[in-house]
Amino acid sequence: MTSYVFGVTYNGAPYRGWQRQPGQNTVQGEIEAALGRIANETVSLQVAGRTDAGVHATGQVAAFSAASRRPLHDWHRGLNALTSDNIHIDWIQVAQEEFHPRYSATARRYIYVYHDIGYTHPHLQGQVWGCPRLDADAMHRAGQALIGEHDFSSYRGSGCQSITPLRRVNLLQVWRQGEFVLLEIEANAFLLHMVRNIARALHDVGEADKGVTTDSPAQWLKQSDRSVVGATAPPWGLYLTAVSYPEYNLPPATRISFLSRQK
Predict the structure, then answer these.
(1) CATH code of the domain containing 196
(2) Is 214 found in the same domain as 145?
(3) Residues near 263 by beta carbon (within 8 Å), at least 6 away in sequence
(4) What range defines the domain where residue 157 resides?
(5) Is 34 in the same domain as 127?
(6) Tens digits of residue pLDDT in 97-138
(7) Residue 181 half-sphere exposure, CB side, CA atoms within 13 Å?
(8) H or E segment at 193?
């Protein structure tokens, strides 16, 4: 058996998430079906992060093992030929024996995209969260209180199976880019719906909704109570943009200008 690791970009809008589900259209299911045709055997994927239904990726990392020996070019070309245009394999290489896309990762980075023109643009449905005008500077200031290691119970989705609510946020920044506001966050790991709940909290700061202030996200954090934060932000504004593996020589995640900070 040879182990391989690859980077993948996908539009999550048509899928019921990454994870394979019987009778459902999923990213994992589509890629595994393509791998099975190439390898002429059943192939199972491991992944850095199982994104929810409607969530996108530009820097997802996955791995598999197969008895079939083929040149890397054949795997790469075959996967892109046998999957839909919603999925693109960016690179593929042989994995080191001890590599695991989830457990070898030291950090993950996401970007959440708000389109604040007051309505959902027809051409951007399923790609961004259309919402009223936001104060990006206030959102950025509010988010700084979430950096560091904290109990993120207030931002944890129901059904989360993690044994601890402690997570370490390394970076959180919010900026305006024309008619878009972008939230970028990196942590050692994330709880279920943690990014989307933070996106909601900062959205409410930016909209100054119902007396919410720049101090509110920090106050909610201290309460360790999910009910104090509003409804989870929709999945379609969320992009997994990078996974960190400092001990492994993996290619960088795909850079998309739409999600890159422009000076």
Answers:
(1) 3.30.70.660
(2) yes
(3) none
(4) 107-242
(5) no
(6) 899 999 999 999 999 999 998 888 899 999 999 998 999 999
(7) 26
(8) none
- Position 252 in a domain: no
Q: Cα 104 from chain centroid?
A: 17
pLDDT at 260 over 90: no
For residue 133, count other CB atoms closer than 10 A to its CB. 12
Average confidence score pLDDT of the chain? 94
**Selection from 175, 196, 199, 195 nearest residue 260 by Cα:** 175
Nearest to 46 by CA among 8, 73, 12, 15: 8
Is residue 237 classed as helix, strand or coil in its secondary structure? helix
pLDDT value at 263 more than 70:
no
The reply to whether 253 falls in a domain is no
Record the tokens describing residue 36, joined without a space.
């099975």
- For the chain, what percent of residues have pLDDT higher than 90? 86
Q: Is 204 a catalytic residue?
A: no
Catalytic residue (one of 52, 90, 116, 135): 52
Instruction: State the residue for tokens 């020996």.
Output: 69
pLDDT grade for 141, boundaries at 50, 70 and 90: very high
Residue 254 maps to a domain? no
**170 domain residue, yes or no:** yes
Pair (166, 92) in one structural domain:
no
- How many structural domains does the chain have? 2
Going by C-alpha positions, the residue among 153, 158, 232, 222 that lies closest to residue 195 is 232
